[in-house]
Predict the 3D structure of the following.
Amino acid sequence: MESQMDYWTARALLEWQVEAGADEAIGDTPVDRYALDAKAPPVVAKPEAEAPSHVAVEVDPVGDAERAAQSAASLEELAAAMQSYPHCELRRGARNFVFCDGRADARVMIVGEAPGRDEDLEGRPFVGRAGQLLDKMLAAIDLSRQAQDAGQGVYITNVLPWRPPSNRTPEQAEIDMMVPFVRRHVALAKPEVLILMGNTPCQALLGKTGITRMRGGWVEVDGIPTMPMFHPAYLLRQAAAKREAWADLLSLRARLNG
Ligand code: URA
C-alpha cells in the first residue's frame, strides 16, 4: 500500500534531521539495502603498485584564518572572508551566517558567544530571549543598537558566526580558528570600549575563562579597555546575578561618561 506524506510532515521530518546534524544527502535516490543481492561481489585488492601515491596536504585552519582576516580592509570584506572560510564545520549545519548588528561606529562593541536558534533563523546576533534582556540592560544605561547617534549606539557580534548544533558550547578548535576574525573585527570597528559576554569571548580574546572572577574588572584587548560581564542567558537562569550585572553596567556608564 502506498502512503503519501503531506508537505508539513515531510518538512518537520527534514527539519528534525537537520537539527540532529544530518545536513547532507549522499545520493539522489534512496537505496533499499534489504533488496540488494545478499551476495556482494568479492572485494579485489589493488596491487600495491596501483594504489594512489599518498600526497600529504598540510591544513592550517588558524593560519588560513589569520591570512584571510588580515587581508580584509573593511567590515564588508571581513564578512565576505568569513563566509568563504572553509575550515569551520559549523557552517554546514547553520541556516544563516550571523555577522553583526547595531552601529559599526558605536563607542561600545559587545562580543557574545555564538548564534542560537533565533539568531540562526534571523541572521542577526542576540535577537532571542537573551538578546531581549541584553537590550533592556543596555537601555538602562542609555545605550541601544538602534540608536540614531554613535554615542548611544552599540555594535554587537559573536565569536562564532554559525550556530553550533543544539546550542552546544563551542569547541576549543572552533574558537581558535575564529579568533583571527574576531580580533580583526574589533580592529576594524575600533570601539572605545569592549564588552565580553560570558566565557567564550573571554577564552577567545583574553585566553582564559572564569567569568565569575573576571566580571566587572577592566582589562585590555589590543589596547582597548575591556570588561567581561555575565552573559544575559546566564542572568535568565540566575536572577540573583543581576545585581552584579547592574554594577557592571554602571561601571560601563561611568567609563563612557569619562
Ligand atoms: N547568545 C550569544 O552569545 N549570542 C547570540 O547572538 C545569541 C545568544
About this structure: The chain has a mean pLDDT of 90. Strands lie at 101-102, 108-112, 154-158, 193-197, 219-221, 224-229. The two ends are 76 Å apart (CA to CA).
